[in-house]
């Protein structure tokens, strides 16, 4: 069953409140619409819609989904207090901005939207891992370069790198050098997330070898059986150079676990404390998000439909984020 929810005027909510205790009638602490950044990747957009539905149906507030992205959204929140909510801001993309916003008192880090943080790594398909069980770590890649033959270079394998402009592209490039793999592999940029996904899925469906960078949570890791190759543990001091494009001496390190934050403008914290308390509680297990996004891919679902599916089928998760009476109001609109 497809969940629907309605937007009510203040007058309508007042009238409804006289007739039923669990309708969308909560007196919102704000008169203005709460702006939520509808960010440009699937998990963040789905979470934005989940939060919008809960805030509207559970707290009786108006919401407005506005286009967003990592650094751009962080910048406008710090300088202008808008949008009011960034549902999924990867801290490594805007560390200095977030610190500045907290110093200036314009934003607050409400919580970690992914309980295990965001992760990056190098992967091979599960079927390849079963066929070559000794291929477990990045150090094993030189002896298997023939599997990943670069069609443009018979002497080297092809490694599908992170996306252009991402901080992980720089780190992944330096890790290739740090592990001495640049002698055996050529870096290949697919150019976009869609192109990288297409290459991975094409190889997977044909049971072909591929080694690639990817991140989680993501639909890819929920949809397909992928195995992450082992690396040395990340050490902030030892690995710091790997984050620099001009790193003179890359090291054989690893990827850090990244804090992925719910960032909220302090206007919400100060003027709508009940909504802020809800946003503090929003937290997903990474496997939950992986499976949710995979469901979205399988069903060609829009972010709003993914949000509706989550609210219908995972009440055990989201109901812990809100008081019982708020949960009842959301459930009554399912």
Fold and architecture overview:
This protein has helices at residues 10-17, 42-59, 70-80, 95-104, 126-131, 167-178, 193-205, 219-223, 266-271, 273-281, 286-298, 303-313, 315-318, 324-331, and strands at 34-39, 63-68, 85-90, 107-112, 119-125, 149-150, 153-160, 185-188, 211-216, 226-228, 260-265. By secondary structure, it is α/β, with parallel strands linked by helices. It folds into two domains: 10-117 and 258-331, D-Maltodextrin-Binding Protein, domain 2 (3-Layer(aba) Sandwich), CATH 3.40.190.10; 119-243, D-Maltodextrin-Binding Protein, domain 2, CATH 3.40.190. A hairpin with a 2-residue loop joins strand 6 (149-150) and strand 7 (153-160). The model is unreliable at 1-25 (pLDDT under 50).
CATH topology of the largest domain: D-Maltodextrin-Binding Protein, domain 2
Low-confidence stretches: 1-25
- Approximate shape: globular
CATH class of the largest domain: Alpha Beta
What gyration radius follows from the Cα positions, in whole Å? 22 Å
Through-space gap between termini: 9 Å
Task: Note the run of SSEs as H and E.
Answer: HEHEHEHEEHEEHEHEHEEHHHHHH
The CATH homologous superfamily of the largest domain is called: Periplasmic binding protein-like II
Number of helices: 14
Largest sheet: 6 strands, mixed
Q: What's the average pLDDT?
A: 91
The overall strand count is: 11
Strand content: 15-25%
Task: Give the tally of structural domains.
Answer: 2
- Looking at the overall shape, the CATH architecture of the largest domain is 3-Layer(aba) Sandwich
- Helix/strand-derived category reads alpha/beta
Helix content: 40-55%
